[in-house]
Amino acid sequence: MKPIYLDHAATSPMHPDVIQAMIPVMESTFGNPSSVHAFGREARHIVDVAREKVAASIGANDKQIIYTSGGTEADNMALIGVANARSEQGKHIITTAIEHHATLHAANYLESQGFEVTYLPVDESGAIKLADLQAALRPDTVLVSVMMINNETGIMQPIQAIGDLLQTHPAYFHTDAVQAYGTEEIDVDTLGVDLLSVSAHKINGPKGIGALYVRDGVPIKPITFGGEQERKRRAGTENVASIVGFGKAAELAMQKRTERKAAYQLLQDTFISELKLSGIDFFINGESGQRSAGIVNISFPGTNVESLLMNFDLSGVTVSSGSACTAGSVDPSHVLKTMYGEDDRVTNSIRFSFGYGNTAESVAEAAQTVAAIIKRLTKGKE
Ligand SMILES: Cc1ncc(COP(=O)(O)O)c(C=O)c1O
């Protein structure tokens, strides 16, 4: 039995072209990009070429890209870096209750440092309301951070509308675009964002590398100390091979974005129609919201998440219950709790996410396996 991997929102397999781009770097380009000799200059050159590719993939220029160790560090840097740089102007931050923990825990940390944070709620659609944001804005609000696509439900947030709204407010606007990158069109100017986080391993690139886009003029204090890399904004020797892989993954994502989005949507549609055909009882969480092509979160009434995860895994269907970081411990999802309160959905939902390597056949087979398990687990409970 070959497992069918439907957990691309947790991480995705590396594209063969990405691997091919990284191998020669690991084999022979070992210089430190900060060194002025030829070895260093060669490494610097490939880091800069990749930076241009990453920048182009979001409509930015290379000077606006800070490499990080991934989405988590980019989110931490955006929140803590901007809050610390702007604390004289105000100590109020707005984010949402459904952010990834990389943002939420950074916000919690800032609260411990004397900042005040408003966490916007979402309703059953899984999206925030602009009116709630408008009501929460204050003269001392220095930063608004709202993710582009939720990693558990795939629900899109109204980023461009928030960008428009904030044109007349001095608060800076950060979006965590980790789950949108690679399938959604991202142009930092059209979206009206000042800071934007991306991560390579969600777009078939290597793990441990990502970037934060910072608009010109946005003040940001470093959160690491020791070197002058990344224009004095992120200390530490660059992860050269991964940066090259990231550049390749960004380039591929840009070239194939429309194709990928259509393909993932077809996979999701195939999966859902196969579940419907089976006759089992299920609900799509956030059904009324606008959903990403690659992610769907499904509630199976009369089941519980632990036995679902165990049975799916034993049958070769690889999924998770939500955010990868909490996947090991099946804590109730903070996202579903915000959407549904104490509803059973919080304890009987699974995230299915589609991507590179999945085929319509494998996804249909996975849906049939899922349906057979649900029938077995709910037998006699109807
Ligand atoms: C929305 C979102 N933000 C941030 C992250 C963290 O990214 P990384 O794993 O690159 O640190 C993830 C990863 O699950 C995510 O889904």
TrEMBL record:
<dbReference type="GO" id="GO:0051536">
    <property type="term" value="F:iron-sulfur cluster binding"/>
</dbReference>
<dbReference type="InterPro" id="IPR020578">
    <property type="entry name" value="Aminotrans_V_PyrdxlP_BS"/>
</dbReference>
<keyword id="KW-0408">Iron</keyword>
<keyword id="KW-0808">Transferase</keyword>
<protein>
    <recommendedName>
        <fullName>cysteine desulfurase</fullName>
        <ecNumber>2.8.1.7</ecNumber>
    </recommendedName>
</protein>
<keyword id="KW-0411">Iron-sulfur</keyword>
<dbReference type="InterPro" id="IPR016454">
    <property type="entry name" value="Cysteine_dSase"/>
</dbReference>
<dbReference type="GO" id="GO:0031071">
    <property type="term" value="F:cysteine desulfurase activity"/>
</dbReference>
<keyword id="KW-0479">Metal-binding</keyword>
<dbReference type="InterPro" id="IPR000192">
    <property type="entry name" value="Aminotrans_V_dom"/>
</dbReference>
<dbReference type="InterPro" id="IPR015424">
    <property type="entry name" value="PyrdxlP-dep_Trfase"/>
</dbReference>
<dbReference type="GO" id="GO:0046872">
    <property type="term" value="F:metal ion binding"/>
</dbReference>
<dbReference type="Pfam" id="PF00266">
    <property type="entry name" value="Aminotran_5"/>
</dbReference>
<comment type="similarity">
    <text>Belongs to the class-V pyridoxal-phosphate-dependent aminotransferase family. NifS/IscS subfamily.</text>
</comment>
<keyword id="KW-0663">Pyridoxal phosphate</keyword>
<dbReference type="InterPro" id="IPR015422">
    <property type="entry name" value="PyrdxlP-dep_Trfase_small"/>
</dbReference>
<feature type="domain" description="Aminotransferase class V">
    <location>
        <begin position="4"/>
        <end position="363"/>
    </location>
</feature>
<dbReference type="InterPro" id="IPR015421">
    <property type="entry name" value="PyrdxlP-dep_Trfase_major"/>
</dbReference>
